Amino acid sequence: MNETYLNKIINEDVLKVLSMLADNSIDLVLTDPPYFLDKMDDSWDEKKVASTKYHHVIKSLPAGMKFDREQGKNFYKWYYKVANEIIRVLKPGGFFFSFSSPRLYHRMVSAIDDAGFLIRDCFIWLYTQNQPKAMSLNHFIEKLDEDKETKEDIKKQLNGWKTPQIKSCFEPIVMAQKEPDGTFLENFRKYNVGLLNTHVKIGQDMFPSNVISTNKINEIVDKCFLISKPDKKEKGDFNAHRTVKPLSLCEYIINLTTYSNEAVVLDPFAGSGTTLVAAKKLGRKFIGIDINKEYIEISKRRIKSTNANYFISNDINKERQLRILEKAAKYKRLNKCKIAKTI
Ligand SMILES: C[S@@+](CC[C@H](N)C(=O)[O-])C[C@H]1O[C@@H](n2cnc3c(N)ncnc32)[C@H](O)[C@@H]1O
Question: Is the pTM of this model over 0.90?
């Protein structure tokens, strides 16, 4: 049933497309959903979000300034439905990595948890450069019905005190897993998912970690957490998407969790297609979904100019991979029979 969608990006609403994908067919879901901050909900419209080419502005306020208690609750309700479909289409033991904002992370993880996933970890994408969003209150003080001297006193009193938005320097990424079928070993032999590839290195040949940085910070941080810096070309000059993720970050997660060239990576909120480009580059199969037609066109362009590398590791050439996969299918069939006989 998934054949129609393999290595394609579908321009539709996420829930509609997910409902058409087969059960237990996807190896990894790696995605960056709309954050439900200000107009960035599931009907995110680029034109409503951005009023200028250079600033990320929601009407007259910088993104993230408005606080609405319903945002998190609405996000939870919608993401619970999405997570319920994702758990159905993932293979047993398959991983679901989902980016979030620090503000709504708890709602996202609760939705994923309540849909039946095992919450394994929280990754953080660490960076030092970001625009602080905190605002001075001088503008509002000026509007107070007070004399000039009082206004000046208040301004002096609040010198340096700003609205409660600290400079944001990380993005949390949940690592959730669909319950494995049997032990980790049994599950891996049947589905080729559910374990992490510790040959994947981070920083200077370090054991893979849940902290990832894509910009040089200092010697120790770089040694432990740096993955290659985004190349200016990787995004594409034509790419107008506002929240493009670093390609190396997606590659790191795909390498860490998917075993073979047969693995299917799904990004249900593909945006400009970074996850899909990474999957193709690493010789994996992919399925992308996005509701916005313009982004689909950007993704297609980026994917077209990406070459696939089918080389997995020194020990596992294509022939051996196929042999292992055939044996896995046989093992799965036999074990299904055993289960059927014991019931
Ligand atoms: C945060 S962006 C993803 C960016 C992507 N990671 C990249 O690197 O370009 C979220 C995407 O979700 C899409 N989206 C929002 N609501 C959707 C829905 N109901 N169904 C499918 N896609 C949706 C938006 O069009 C947007 O491109």
Answer: no
